[in-house]
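Chapter review: from sequence to fold.
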Amino acid sequence: MYSKIRNPIAVILFSFFTGFIYYWYWLWVTNKQINELAGYEVMGDGMLILGWFCFPVAWYIWYKWDKALLDVAEAKGLRYGSNFILWVILSLVGIGPYVLEFQVQDTLNSAYGG
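The C-alpha cell string follows.
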C-alpha cells in the first residue's frame, strides 16, 4: 500500500521536482494516516479534494490537521506545538506547503516510532 514512515526531505524534493503531483498524493495518504492515528475522521476525502482547488479550504485542512496532530502527539507523549499560523504566513511567500510537509511528516514518523 504505502510506507508510513517517509523521509521529510525526500517528500519535499519529490513534491518540488514533480511539480506538486507528489504533494497531492502525499496529502491524500497523509490524510488517511492522520485519520487513523486520531481515531476519528479529521478531514473527509471530499473536503480534501475541494482544498486542491480552493486555497482557503486548504488552510482549513491545515488547521484541522494541526489540531489533530496536537491530540495525537499528546496521546503518544510526543512534543508538538501548533504550527498552523506559521504555515499560513509562509504560504504567503510560497514555502508554507514545504514547511507543512516537513513538520507533519516528521510528526507522523515520530508517532509511528520512526
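Two observations follow directly from the output. Residues 8-111 form one domain. The helical segments are 8-17, 21-38, 45-53, 55-76, 84-91, 96-111.
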